[in-house]
From TrEMBL:
This is Inositol 2-dehydrogenase. It comes from Enterococcus silesiacus. It comes from the Bacteria. InterPro entries: Gfo/Idh/MocA-like_OxRdtase_N, GFO_IDH_MocA-like_dom, Myo_inos_IolG, NAD(P)-bd_dom_sf. Pfam families: GFO_IDH_MocA, GFO_IDH_MocA_C3. The keyword NADP does not apply. Gene3D superfamilies: Dihydrodipicolinate Reductase, domain 2, NAD(P)-binding Rossmann-like Domain. NCBIfam families: myo_inos_iolG. Residues 4-121 form the Gfo/Idh/MocA-like oxidoreductase N-terminal domain. GO terms for molecular function: nucleotide binding; oxidoreductase activity. GO terms for biological process: NADPH regeneration. The lineage of its organism: Bacteria, Bacillati, Bacillota, Bacilli, Lactobacillales. Keywords: Oxidoreductase. Belongs to the Gfo/Idh/MocA family. Residues 133-259 form the GFO/IDH/MocA-like oxidoreductase domain.
Length: 342
């Protein structure tokens, strides 16, 4: 069967993860094109991944007859425009989260996507494709926990990345900690609860890196959310975890509770020595969610082949972004924010 030809835009840390997976770990596709404004990244794509076409301008790559689909892993502010251009040029689209930073622009982009039903669109909420989260979802959907009443979500990046993030924050807009990090947890809340978020209240503090105050970024943020059925969710997002990369989810229901990754363990090895009983921790998101990134890429290619749409939709991106923006507004105004329904 002929392979799906893919082009990718953005070859930063996450872009390289996707590019390597497409080139080496996902059957049925071929990474043939790459776009970046950084020449070193294009050189990497050619020499390390065997990419045949390189572009400095996305508008040129997306018009190439050589590609059937695009992976968008560029900065968040570019996503909506790049999705539109890809759709209008007949390409299938995988876009990293968030779908955009502005609700009005996202709504317009959603309309563009819906006007091309023959083309596959998929958003990069990779936790849905992690084996542990899928197992937890099966338990919840089977009724093993009864009715869900509360979710608690931690997403905390390793402190080893703080220095580089402080520099990034001074030059770029991540969308804020709730958009940049908690949006994955917001998606999980909607996915598990099958309900929309009604109200949010968010707080935060910069302790180790108070200079983030000057650029409107947060080192640690927390939000409490009430869903439309009165269920509750608590989010904690941070950038200063000294033991590694900590992503944890707890679900509490009327018949029981479960935790996904209560300890962010790297593997199944336990070391017992003079330091005590030690379990190594995952150190970054490419390590923790390696298989999930591969699985979501496989699903995208399978959707193209089978002419179907994935479970994750543009609407999921719109709703999650709406909640993340409400969390940001709540933090900035110190107010409880009620989210308007669409």
């Amino acid at each position: 069967m002929e392979k799906i030809k893919v082009g990718i835009v953005g070859l930063g840390r996450l872009g390289k993860v996707h590019a390597k997976n497409l080139a080496e770990n996902v059957q049925g596709c071929q990474l043939v094109a790459a776009c970046s404004v950084v020449q070193e990244e294009l050189a990497y794509a050619v020499t390390e991944l065997g990419v045949e076409e390189t572009y400095k301008k996305y508008e040129e790559m997306v018009k190439s007859p050589s590609i059937d689909a695009v992976f968008i892993v560029s900065p968040s502010g570019f996503h909506c425009e790049q999705i539109r251009l890809a759709m209008e040029n007949g390409k299938h689209v995988f876009s990293e989260k968030p779908i955009g930073l502005d609700l009005a622009e996202i709504k317009e982009t959603t309309q563009v996507i819906e006007s091309h039903p023959e083309q596959v669109f998929m958003l990069g909420f990779m936790r849905r494709y992690d084996d542990s989260y899928q197992y937890a979802k099966q338990l919840v959907d089977s009724g093993a926990l009864g009715e869900l009443t509360l979710m608690r979500c931690y997403s905390i990046d390793p402190s080893s990345g703080m220095e580089s993030f402080v520099k990034f924050a001074g030059a770029s807009d991540s969308g804020g900690i709730f958009m940049d990090m908690s949006i994955h947890d917001i998606d999980l809340v909607r996915w598990f609860m099958k309900k929309e978020v009604d109200r949010v209240w968010a707080i935060g503090k910069n302790a180790a890196y108070p200079e983030l105050d000057e650029v409107g970024e947060l080192e640690t943020g927390a939000a409490m959310m009430q869903l439309e059925n009165q269920a509750m969710a608590i989010l904690v997002a941070g950038r200063n975890c000294h033991h590694g990369y900590h992503v944890e989810t707890e679900l509490i229901g009327t018949k029981g509770m479960l935790r996904v990754a209560a300890a962010p363990e790297k593997n199944l090895v336990t070391v017992m020595n003079k330091q005590g009983v030690v379990r190594a921790c995952s150190q970054d998101f490419p390590e923790r969610f390696r298989e999930a990134f591969i699985n979501e890429a496989k699903e995208f290619i399978a959707c193209i082949r089978e002419k179907r749409q994935p479970e994750v939709t543009a609407y999921d991106g719109l709703q999650s972004t709406k909640v993340a923006l409400a969390c940001k507004e709540s933090f900035e105004t110190n107010q409880l924010i009620t989210i308007e329904t669409i």
